[in-house]
Design goal:
Oligomer: single chain
Largest sheet: 4 strands, antiparallel
Shape: elongated
Helix content: under 10%
Radius of gyration: 14 Å
Strand content: 35-45%
Distance between the termini: 39 Å
Number of strands: 6
């Protein structure tokens, strides 16, 4: 049985320990990110991804690294 190919662009998740703020597009305001995790995007950039406390939408913030 052949193995399924895995994508090399899979994001790696790390739990972010500090408090992050990001811009929620739905609420149109700056919010604290709930359950933040550091991910690597397809193009190699790093970002913090989490949830908006008000609407529950996904919030991203790009970081250096």
């Amino acid at each position: 049985m052949a193995r399924k190919k895995t994508s090399k662009t899979r994001s790696r998740k790390k739990k972010a320990e500090q408090v992050w703020e990001g811009f929620c597009v739905r609420c149109r305001k700056k919010v604290k990110i709930l359950k933040p995790e550091i991910v690597t995007l397809k193009n190699g950039r790093k970002a913090v991804r989490g949830k908006c406390p008000d609407c529950g939408g996904v919030v991203y913030r790009f970081i250096k690294g």
